[in-house]
Amino acid sequence: MSFSPERTRDAIRSAAPGRFLLWLLSLVYSGAIEVRRRLYAAGMLPSSRLPVPVICFGNISAGGTGKTSTVIAAARELKQLGFKPAILLRGYGRKAPPRKLVLLDGPGEYDAAECGDEAVIIHNALKDLSIPVSVSADRAAAGRAAVEKLGCDILLMDDGFQHFALKRDRDIVIVNAAAPFHKDAPLPLGNLRERKAGLARAHMVIISHCERSTAAGLEELHAEIKKINPRAVVAESMHVPEHFIDARRRLPVPLATVKGKAASVISAIGDPDSFERNLRELGAGLEGIWRYPDHHRFTVEEIKALAAASGDRPVITTYKDFSRFPPSWETILRGPLYILSVRITFLCDGYRLMMDQLIPPGTSS
Fold first, then answer.
1. pLDDT band at 69 (very low <50, low <70, confident <90, very high)
2. CA-based, 20 to 30 A from 26: which of 19, 275, 312, 340?
3. Same fold for the domain at 54-239+345-358 and the one at 241-342?
4. pLDDT tens string 192-248
5. CATH number for the domain running over 54-239+345-358
6. pLDDT in tens, 91-121
7. What is the 3-class SS of the chain, one letter each residue?
8. Domain boundaries in the chain?
9. Selecting from 3.40.50, 2.60.40, 3.30.70, 3.30.1490, what CATH number does the domain 241-342 have?
10. 8 Å CB contact between 152 and 145
11. How far, in Å, CA of 254 to CA of 211, rounded?
12. Cβ atoms within 10 Å of 220's Cβ, excluding its own
């Protein structure tokens, strides 16, 4: 199994000296993030404004919150309302230079090594609606390209809550109900990207994975959000499995396909626990669990090891992970490869609340 930053951190903080060291590093890290934010707020570092609305979707913590599913759902809704949205991505984990601009537009196939795995996932999910994805570490340049070259009239910035070089009209932050941010600490001691007080900048907070929390846990989370940011609009959502995709046949198969069957699972995502829990609840017997660091790009040798351990039994993964499989996976794996497809569902009036944030006053389709 490959190197895991999470396991290394857990080993360090298992003893008092290690916890103290990580606490000191967390103070330095969170202090640096706050200084950087203040420099942007004071105008000492430049921040660009684009001619169309920019809606930012972000996290206050590292790890999986369901942000990508939320961005995809928001883009679909805007398109159906007559807008021309585009998604702005940094392109984390790609091999191309960070500031290289890549526009994913049209029905073509794109290389995850060139533009990043998340860009490929979002493009594949939205290409039927001709919603482009613009990739660059320079989000302002990515946004200008979408506006000037493709005529887009609203931009959704994915994972940009701590990206201050591009001004936005709304900040929507997703927090994971199964990993409450207020019980966590800044990196590297915990998983917070900044101090929890940063949530005060959000216009809206979406609590995701509510299906993984209790009523008391959600009530506590609402109270914490209100204490930090009483003006924020708060909505709740769940992530619900809808079907599997048979990766060989490129066709959907029912969730019951894995019920009562032994399977292997492979992932390199921020929240593998939720993914594996979903599979167990669907009745799959997970006899082999392969976890890698978030955004890990799988090698041929790793897939061969997976194949040797799995034999003919099914292997289950996520959309995000499948985009990072080596092209030769079909000749290596003997059994079926299933991709779990999950949809976001808002609770109560959460959908309306999000749409109110997506369309700032004065914006028309």
1. confident
2. 275
3. yes
4. 999 999 999 999 999 999 988 999 999 999 999 999 999 999 999 998 899 999 999
5. 3.40.50.300
6. 887 888 999 999 999 888 888 788 987 898 8
7. CCCCHHHHHHHHCCCHHHHHHHHHHHHHHHHHHHHHHHHHHCCCCCCECCCCCEEEEECCECCCCCHHHHHHHHHHHHHHCCCCEEEEECCCCCCCCCCCCEEECCCCCCCHHHHCHHHHHHHHHHHHHCCCEEECCCHHHHHHHHHHHHCCCEEEEECCCCCCCECCCEEEEEEECCCCHHHCCECCCCCECCCHHHHHHCCEEEEECHHHCCHHHHHHHHHHHHHHCCCCEEEEEEEEEEEEEECCCCEEECHHHHCCCEEEEEECCCCHHHHHHHHHHCCCEEEEEEECCCCCCCCHHHHHHHHHHHCCCCEEEEHHHHCCCCCCHHHHCCCCEEEEEEEEEECCCHHHHHHHHHCCCCCCC
8. 54-239+345-358, 241-342
9. 3.40.50
10. no
11. 21
12. 15
User: For residues 314 and 337, is the Cβ–Cβ distance under 8 A?
Assistant: yes
Lowest mean pLDDT among 236-245, 251-260, 353-362: 353-362
Joined tokens for residue 313: 């039994």
Tokens (6 digits) for 90: 């940094």
